[in-house]
Amino acid sequence: MGLAGKRAALVACVVAAGLACKRARKDDRPTPTVSTIHRPPPPALPPAPRGKQVTLLYTSNDDGDYEQCGCPVHPLGGIARRATVIDRARAEADVTLVLDAGDLFIPRAVNLAGEVRPDAGEIERRARLLAGAYGRLGTTALLPGERDLALGLPLLRRLAKGARVPLLASNLYGRDGKRLFDADKIVDAAGLKIGVFGVTAPPTPDDAAAFKAAGIEARDPAAAARDEVASLRARGARIVVALVHVGERDDSRKLLAAVPGIDWAVLGHSGMNLEMPEKVGGGARMLEAMAKGKNVGRLDLHVVDDKLTFVDRGERVQIETILADHQGQLNEYD
User: Fold this and answer.
1) CB-side exposure of 176: number of CA atoms within 13 Å?
2) Residues contacting residue 65 through CB under 8 Å, at least 6 positions apart
3) From CA 101, how far away is CA 199, in angstroms rounded?
4) pLDDT band at 21 (very low <50, low <70, confident <90, very high)
5) Which helix (H) or strand (E) holds 313?
């Protein structure tokens, strides 16, 4: 007899014994008998389809830090750790994009008198080290923030060229009216075109003089972003990723709300740690991974059947868990 047959027989015996007892001694009330049957758990639901995995690894606001934070309990950060994380992700994905939304090179040092910067020699030493490391990481694109531009355009360009780190900025222009850096790039992700561009905010009053002296003009970032979305889509980009360095969270939200067509936005300057993407209206989703290199953000996109309607797999897992729990309750009930 199979296991199911044995269980059926056990239940039938309990019922028959109760009936016989009632016939023999109608006035006696037998003690109820409880029989617990341990049923196997419901079968696991099939995993969500993997599809084509495109992984975005993103950082910003490094502020010239290349060592781990020295935190006593949980050490965070460090360029060596970042390289390990990126190498592992690259081995797991079909395509990997490594993106940075700016403020990479200039360190922050604080004393009782307020914020002061290290001397120029130390700044350049750190900048060379970080540029070389970013070249080793295979950086897809770096958007210069105001603290990167403070290095000076000649040094910034030399470092990026020597390390083969692509600099993107769609709204930064020089005295000659030409863009200072490439406006965008399209990455062929195993047959799927992904467009990447970046915009930087106009200078604050504190930085305005330095921008003018360096001959840097930051044009309207929202207008530049709209032009880039249209251009990238026209050239076949099916996913558009924006590097956004325009200020605090509300500044970024305002810009993204004004520019439809952006799918994902890697933020700089604000220094937030968004553990989950934050959606802006019905459009872009914001990403940011803290400051000083303490975290590396990772976003895995699974393109299934060539469909590009984004669904959060974490939500699917939650629903699957609830469904499995309810199915288990139904099995026990039966």
Assistant:
1) 3
2) 77, 107, 292, 293
3) 9
4) very low
5) helix 313-333
Terminal Cα-to-Cα distance of the chain (whole angstroms): 21
Give how far the C-alpha of residue 231 lies from the chain's centroid of Cα atoms, to the nearest Å. Answer: 24
The pLDDT tens digits of the residues spanning 98-133 come to: 999 999 888 765 444 445 567 778 888 889 999 999
Interatomic CA distance for residues 181 and 177, integer angstroms: 12
The total of other beta-carbon atoms located within 10 Å of residue 46's CB is 7
Report the 10 Å Cβ neighbour count for 159. Answer: 22
Q: Is 174 exposed, middle or buried (0-12, 13-18, 19+ CB in 10 A)?
A: middle
Rounded to whole angstroms, the Cα distance separating 273 from 27 reads 72
d(CA 153, CA 216): 9
Contact assessment for residue 167 and residue 148, using Cβ atoms and an 8 Å cutoff: no
Sorted by where each begins, the domain ranges of the chain are 1-40, 52-306
Q: In the chain, which residue ranges form alpha helices assigned H by DSSP? A: 3-24, 79-92, 120-136, 146-149, 153-163, 205-214, 221-234, 249-257, 313-333
Enumerate residues 6+ apart whose C-beta is below 8 A from 11. 35
- 3-state class of 129 per DSSP? helix
Place domain 52-306 in its CATH homologous superfamily. Answer: Metallo-dependent phosphatases (3.60.21.10)
DSSP summary character for residue 94: S
With vertex at residue 262, the alpha carbon angle to CA 261 and CA 263, rounded to the nearest 5 degrees, is: 115
Decide: residue 90, CB within 10 A, 0-12 exposed, 13-18 middle, 19+ buried: middle
* Residue 295: closest CA among 306, 287, 285, 305: 287
Which residue, among 8, 41, 15, has the nearest Cα to 330 in the 3D structure?
A: 41
